[in-house]
Amino acid sequence: MPPDTGATPQQPFPSRKTNHWSFNVTRYTGLIDAYRHRLPLPPEAKAISLGEGRTPLIKLDNLVRHVGVDADIYVKFEGANPTGSFKDRGMTMAVTEAVHRGAKAILCASTGNTSAAAAAYAARAGIKSFVLIPEGKIAMGKLAQAVVHGAVIVQVRGNFDDGMRLVKEVSETSPVVLVNSVNPYRLQGQKTAAFEIVEALGEAPDYHCLPVGNAGNITAHWIGYTECAGSGTVSCKLCNGNCQFAQAGGKAKRPKMVGYQAAGSAPFMRGGAVKNPETVATAIRIGDPQSWDPAWIVQKESGGWFDECSDADILATQRLLAEQEGVFCEPASATSLCGALRDLKSGKIPAGSSIVCTLTGNGMKDPDIILKAGLPQLIEVDAVKSAVERVLVDRL
Length: 396
Ligand code: F0G
Fold this sequence. Notes:
Largest sheet: 6 strands, mixed
Order of helices and strands: HEHEHEHEHEHEHHEHEHHEHHEHH
Oligomer: single chain
Helix content: 25-40%
Bound molecules: ligand F0G
Number of helices: 15
Strand order of the largest sheet: 1-2-10-7-8-9
Number of strands: 10
Strand content: 5-15%
C-alpha cells in the first residue's frame, strides 16, 4: 500500500479539457476567435481559420551583442503562420467576410505570399481561388502552395503592378471578391499583430519597423496600435478615424512606424511610382503601392519615416539573423531588421530604444537564394563510423 498522503487519486487519463496539471487547456483556434470583439464581423459569421496568429515575438540577444548595438530588439516572426506569412491574418478575415456574404470565388494579384494564403483559405472555405502572378519572379515554394490548394494560376506577362491593375478591373465586372490589401478586411485581420505585441510587452514598443511593398501591413499595424491607445486613425479606410474598436482606458503609447523598402523598388523614397522595380526581395518588388495615401498618414501620425536598403545589405541581414539567432526569414522580411540596425548605428533610432521588427515571411519560401551561394559546409564521407567521427574530431 502506498502511504496515504491525503491527495486526491489521479485519474489514469486527463480529461479532454485538462492536462496533467489539471488546469484548463483551450485549443487556440485563430485570430477571429481570439479578437472577434475587436473585428468588424457579424456575430453569426463563421470563421474560416487555419489557426493563424499568436506568432513568436523573439528577443534578439546574440545578434544585438554581435553587432554591438544597445537596444531591446524583438522580431515578430510572421513566417510561423500556417501558410508561412503574415498574409494569413488578413486572409482569414477577408475570406470569412466574403463567404459570409455568399462569395463563391476570390481573386488576387501576388508576388507569392498572398497567392499561397488565398489558395489555402479558399480551400478551407470550399470556394474557388484565382491568383495572378508576375512572370518568372515567383518563389517555387509559393507556387507549389497555390498548386496544391487548387488555385487557378494565371501568369501575367508583366510585373506585380500590372497584375494588381488587372485584378481591380476584373473584380468590378466578375462575381469574385478581391482579396488584395485594398480589401479593408485584410488590414483588419493584420492589425491583430499589433494587439499581440502590446499584450506581450505590456505596451507598444518605441519603434516598429516593417518591410514595405503595397504598404498595407504598415497601415494595418498602425490601426492596431491606435486602437490599443484608445483612438482611431484616418488611415483606416473602414472608419476614417471614427473607430468603434478604440479600447477605453487603453495604453496611450504608440510606436513610431518605420517602413523600409528595397533600393530598386522604393517609391516612397522617390516620391512616386517606380516603373520597373527590381530587387532580390521579390515579395516587395512593387513600384506602385496600393496604400500610398494611408501609409503617408501613418508616417505623419506616428512620427516615423521611410528609408531604403540595398539588396546586398538585405541578404547579409537575412544570413546574420539565421546564423546568430536561428531565425530564417525570407529576404523581403529581413529588410525591416536591416534598416533598424543601420538606423540604430547612426543614432537615428536612439540607443536604449525598444524596437519590434516584423519578419513578414518564412525563409523556406525560397531556399534557392541561400543555396545559390554554394554549400560550404557539405562534406562527403564513406558510410562508415570512423569517417563521420573524423569529421567531428577535426572540428570540435
Ligand atoms: N513582406 C512579405 C514577405 C510580403 O509578401 C509582402 C507583400 C510584404 C512584405 C509587403 O507588405 O504589401 O503590406 O507592404 N506581399 C504581397 C504578396 C504583395 O503578393 O504576397 P505590404
